[in-house]
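Problem 12. The chain below contains 279 residues. Write out its predicted structure in token notation.
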Amino acid sequence: MPENRSHTWKWYVCGLLLLATTINYMDRVTLANASVRVTKEFGLSEEQYGNLELYFGWAFAVGSLVFGLLADRVRIYWLYPVVLAGWSVMGMVSGWTSSYSELLICRILLGFFEAGHWPCALKTTFALLDTKDRTMGNSVLQSGASIGAIVTPQIMKALMTDDIGSWRGAFVVVGAVGIGWVLLWFVSMRPRELETAPPAEKAVGGPQLFDLIFSRRFWALALLITGTQTVWHIYRVWLMKFLQTGRGYSEAEALNFQSAYYIATDVGCVLAGVVSIWL
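Solution.
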């Protein structure tokens, strides 16, 4: 733990993690925000569009396991920027694809690398923050998901023109933001900064993985997360298509509604952190 660093600096790093989460969601929701354009340009069926997100989800699941293991064995200082650069490049390359199969491969790799953000970010807050501050720190970084979902529709609305293929440039611009974060990470951190958690809080004999997986608490949490995340991602993936093709709203109106919807979720994330500290 970097004892020579100030408390302010530690919260600055939490802000950096919030920015990473924002970028994570920006790259994730670009496809949904341009779903009608992409479907028309590539001549996709609804099933093919759904498969783009389905395989993204499976790749994310695999990446969560892979990077969860790597985060315990590889320095976060190096792993985190590799992960973030990986999904940022995939987001950019998505804008240069010329076929459905190429776009599908990009979405799979995007999902795989995006999964690495969460173990890296949580490992960072665990190393930097005291126990009493971690819930708020994690709420701060989590709120970046809603921020990304809020700002991306407005960015894409500004970048997309009447040309149906103008979504491509928006993908490249949004993806390039992540490269800037990688540079900021190396400027802000030191190689050995996140090697260990606070010594007094190291576990001596925690539960074994097998016991944890078969515990009732694990499955209660798993069911809770499955329920909430299923609803969250149905809206993320299909809301733009529903509003435009199902209800006849213009692209600009649908993008504005997307931003408004996620403003509420962002407020909820921050309030949840504040209430948890108060309780």
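Discussion. Residues 197-204 have pLDDT under 50 and may be disordered. Students who got a different answer should revisit the alignment rule from Section 12.3.
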